Fold these 2 entries.
Entry 1:
Amino acid sequence: MMFKDSAELVFKEKIPKGRAAWRSPSNIALVKYWGKHGVQLPRNPSVSFTLSESYSETSIAYRPRSADDKDSFAFLFDAKEEPAFADRIGKYLQEVTSIFPFIDQLHLDIRSRNSFPHSSGIASSASAFSALALCLCSIEYQCFGTLEEDTAYRKKASYVARLGSGSASRSIFDTAALWGQHGEESASSDEFAIGVKDRIHEVFHSYGNAILLVDSGSKSVSSSAGHRLMEDHVYAQVRYAEARKNLLQLMQALQQGDTERVGSLIEVEAMQLHAMMMASRPYVILLAPNTLKIIQLIQEFRRSTHLPVFFTIDAGPNIHLLYPQEHRSDVLAFIEDVLGQYCLRGSWIDDRVGNGPIQID
Ligand code: DP6
């Protein structure tokens, strides 16, 4: 049994009331998770940097559920009702009730907000589901005294976050996380992520990550539909093998502080992700014309300055520009003078690698 027997997590006497709240960041994948099976299990292992400025804040006020309660939970996003989000959260709560059976005895008043604009095209599922999972684990801790130890707490939070969104499993950890079983990574698992900060050179602990907002249009393919495109993809097996190989090389380069090697590996990963989409049936193009323009400009910038400034891209058109803090002023000037004009109304988010979730009042 991986966690405490869930049958014990029910209130036998008085049902308490209380509140749990977490701020949890988004993360940026360096080796990409693309392709899943079973209950949110990844087809290949992935590694990410945890972000700092792009986060969700979620609180859950809980109390005994009464016969008068029409609904088992209430949900407000930015203090407003969002039926589409509420729907997804309702399904999620049902799913995790087998892990936290006390959910059935409570009424949950859930409120959430993001630090980044809703329309910015940033995937919020990683920060949102990690924050929610952390709150549920907090309720378990407050009511049953379990999960006292930090490692156990994070393991369960990562497991539960994964059920909401695969990439959310990685947001639970300081600096960097690895999710997905890899034969040469002994503690790795498909069911939860592990923190790998202690294996990462200091230069990356505060690495810069500028998110260049190229297009805010809602995604033309949801992540779940995207993952499905890998199911009978002709290149699927090759891609999964590549991800495994890239992961080992990346972990080594991260350890050595080799910014050039890390940079070239993350660019290859981003391009392979999009190559997979373009070679799917039906094919999907999520890169925008300005994404390609910005890629070219980054390549030119590197050629002329010899600075280790590289990019990665998730399932959308936005570019994450990764750079060592010592080159921050050059990178900011590059964005202001050159790249900004290819961003949506010049907008970008000044983010960096961060320390992971924190509990809030
Ligand atoms: C391209 O975690 O959003 O960002 O598990 O279906 O919620 P679901 O998918 P999601 O997929 C993320 C895909 C990616 C790569 C990554 O973050 O590893």
Entry 2:
Amino acid sequence: MKALILAGGKGTRLRPLTVYTPKPIVPVLNRPFLEYQIEILKRAGIEDITLSLSYQPDKIEHVLGFGEQLGVSLHYVTESQPMGTGGAYKLAAKDFEEPTIVLNGDVLTDLIVAKLIKRHQRSGAKATIVLAPVEDPSLYGLVETDQDGNVRAFKEKPKADAVEDSGPSLINAGIYVLEREILDLIPENENYSFEYNVFPEILNRGISFGAFVLENEYWRDIGTPETYLQAHMDFISGKVRHFPIDREEEFDRATSTFIDRNSVIDAECVIKPNVTITNSVLGKGVVVEEHSMIENSVIWSHSRISNSAKISGAILARSCYVGKNCVITPGAVLGNKSTLTDYTKI
Ligand code: GDD
Ligand code: MG
């Protein structure tokens, strides 16, 4: 089994975080996001992983390299222009001689991939799609299954009136196992979409299309600031399993500070006296001055928080400067090198 991670989208909904950092490598708990996907693939014995890139490919290659540090072998296929999800698969996988597990490069999950592969192989289906239950399917691909658990209908980003309002819906979790025959449904060198073209075509032709429904597994698309922040909150409160959190980093902490057990502080941070940090993640080398308060927030590396600032429910990208007595309220998202003058309120 080969693996392909679709990592070429522009990450527009995650701006400004993705202006300088492509979505596949935004830090999640201070690690480039794709490392989590690579890890679950590796646990299933899949070590040959191709990344399909389009937006800022050099940055991704620079961070992940050939994968040797992660114990896998990474290959890159870069599109000169975005080919769409299906087109990207055709371009990257056309010469693969084995079936492929394809992942959207922005879903955080603790799925045990070996279970999915086993189910796919036992079912004999030509394609198996992972489904997640959500309350509002309008942002996703809505999937209907039949009595045998096979896919019966697929509707990408359904309008509200196409959705039954009784209880959670099953949506496309952005993880597929595809036999080689699926490649034949996709034209070469054309922008083509799994969601709008390939899946409807599989159903039209009556090709066997199985589903694997997530039950206790964690799943979230990290592609908006709200879901990116929520993924952190879920992670530090223990909802994401199988990825141990390293809370042992060496940082400089004054004695009269309060840092709760959920928070994760990376190496080389400096936390001055009378600071309170709860439910938050700080990247490498963040400095927090006296009497500041940080809660429910994610702060990327090398930012500086001046004294008596209050940051709540916010995301700060790299190397931000927050002046003294600033108040940052829930929903704020600051791009790299943002500077807030003393006493700013946002
Ligand atoms: N290589 C490449 N080329 N990758 C692409 C391209 C492309 O042209 N377009 C998108 N991608 C990658 C993105 O980088 C992302 O990792 C993944 O494909 C999905 O794109 P998104 O833009 O994040 O799609 P979405 O979140 O709106 O919807 C998709 O994911 C949902 C689950 O999170 C769909 O697959 C939905 O059906 C699904 O429910
Ligand atoms: Mg997405």
